[in-house]
Amino acid sequence: MSKLKDDRVSKETQVTKISQEHIDYLHRVRMEKISVRVIQILIFGVAFLLWEICANTKIVDPFITSQPSRVFNTMVRLYEDGVLFHHIGITCWEAFLGFVLGTLVGTIIAIMLWWSEFLCKILEPYLVILNSLPKIALGPVFIVWIGAGPPAIIVMTLAISLIVTVLEVLNGFLTVDQEKIKLVQTFGGSKYQVLTKVVLPASYPTIINALKINVGLSWVGVIVGEFLVSKAGLGYLIVYGGQVFKLDLVMTSVIILGVAAAVMYQGVVYLERMLVKNKA
């Protein structure tokens, strides 16, 4: 009886020890995340501080490079004029719509190509050729076909991000473990069940990676489209600022673009965490 009691106490002590080790591990992980975030903020702050100092001391010409204080003043002026959120809203909406459409349409096309190996063999060389084409050169063509306006900008965004999404997601589908697919087929699973129960769940990391890539591509497509045709938006402000030598306006628009792209990317990261959490 005494021996059993000693064994129980020993096991409880071991569990307590493991739990404490686990707590220490979680603490280290949390501190590492905090350290990474603090260093990122410090790098950002130091870069802006050096930029301001170099401009004030004339190491760089503030007329050409602008400086944080002038960027802030330009942002305040745009806000007071009532156009700041108008331009930001137009660009963000176009980027978001192009991002969502590019991801959804690209994933659907990838599913179709995975479903039909015959169709995949036919279209594969065309996809490679389309991916190698300079999409920016197609901008004037889209404007003539569709007309000047947001639709042409969204189509430009699709042209830049769609083929990359198709190739990325299709490659993820084709690299799924064939043994798992054969196991489902052995138990009489249909192709639709293979897709929904094996291929798609196994390709979540690939799809998330495609989303992360599409964040950057969507912003590139929107800005290129706004360079060519827009009368409003951050791309329009950049072109206008460059034409009239208002470099403060250019740098302000670029910084706002960077912040907006970072927010969209963090949204994809949050989605990734939610999927991983639900999958676990």
Automatic annotation (TrEMBL):
CDD domains tied to this protein: TM_PBP2 (cd06261)
ABC transmembrane type-1 domain residues: 88-268
Keywords: Cell membrane, Membrane, Transmembrane, Transmembrane helix, Transport
Principal localisation: membrane
Membrane topology: Multi-pass membrane protein
Transmembrane segments: 34-53, 95-115, 127-146, 152-174, 217-238, 250-271
Keyword Protein transport: no
One Gene Ontology term, aspect cellular component: plasma membrane
A Pfam family annotated for this UniProt entry: BPD_transp_1
Domain of life according to the entry: Bacteria
A single GO BP: transmembrane transport
Localization terms from the record: Cell membrane
Similarity-based family: Belongs to the binding-protein-dependent transport system permease family.
Name under which the protein is recorded: NitT/TauT family transport system permease protein
